[in-house]
Amino acid sequence: MKFAYLRGTSKALKATRLRCTQLSYPLDEHELIRGCLRGSAQCQRDLYERFAGKMYAVCLRYARTREDAADILQEGFLKVFTKLDQFQFQGSFEGWIRRVMVNTALRAYQKQRYDYEQTGFERMPDMPVDPDAVSMLSEAELMNLVRKLPDGYRAVFNLVAIEGYSHAEAADMLGIQESTSRSQLTKARRHLEEEVSRIQKITT
């Protein structure tokens, strides 16, 4: 299959090109997918524009930078078009694309060894974290802080706290122990709580 729409696009896509606009599409979702399977460049373009904004937001949560998120989005859509024949027209197509993007993002950082990330919380016991500290943040503020988490903490927080995966599922996806996933999530939340406290001190 040729990916006419994606071919030639730059790696560092500008955010303004990644946001979806409110467009009216002549094809329903299944017709659009079938058009892509036939190699239609227009269908590829329409599919990309329909989902790029939402998927960029997903990539941004897992990436260190906006440039990394754009790279992950690019690679993720290449995989979407390559694996499109594996979609069985059952369940949510957006959910299927989302899983492709999440897996692409995780693989982008799989060379990182979570056990050796140094943040200052490694030797601290896993104590309960005040949920009110994080809940005080707006979604944009939370996402900004999440992007600053170390790779392992960020991945577990996204998978479990945001995507809704179980610790067993997250551990399997990341190639770590379930107990490590639980510990990483606790430390990620503590890291976020410390950042919230620091912000509050600055603004008060």
Which key features would you list for this structure?
Rna Polymerase Sigma Factor, Chain: A; mainly alpha; Arc Repressor Mutant, subunit A; single chain; 10 helices; 204 residues
Question: Could you name the CATH homologous superfamily of the largest domain?
Answer: RNA polymerase sigma factor, region 2, helix turn helix motif
Look at the helices and sheets and give the structural class: mainly alpha
How are helices and strands ordered from N to C? Answer: HHHHHHHHHH
Q: Helical stretch count? A: 10
Query: Which CATH class of the largest domain applies here?
Result: Mainly Alpha
CATH topology of the largest domain: Rna Polymerase Sigma Factor, Chain: A
- What is the CATH architecture descriptor of the largest domain? Orthogonal Bundle
Global outline: elongated
The overall pLDDT, averaged over residues, is 79
**C-alpha Rg, in Å?**
19 Å
Give me the oligomer status: single chain
SS strand fraction: under 5%
- The domain tally reads 2
Largest beta-sheet characterization:
none
Number of extended strands: 0
How would you describe what is shown here?
- The protein has 204 residues and is mostly helical.
- It is 63% helix and 0% strand.
- The model is unreliable at 8-25 and 112-129 (pLDDT under 50).
In terms of topology, how is this protein built?
Blueprint: H1 15-18, H2 29-37, H3 41-62, H4 66-82, H5 93-108, H6 131-135, H7 139-147, H8 151-162, H9 167-174, H10 178-203
Tell me briefly what this model is.
The chain is mainly α.
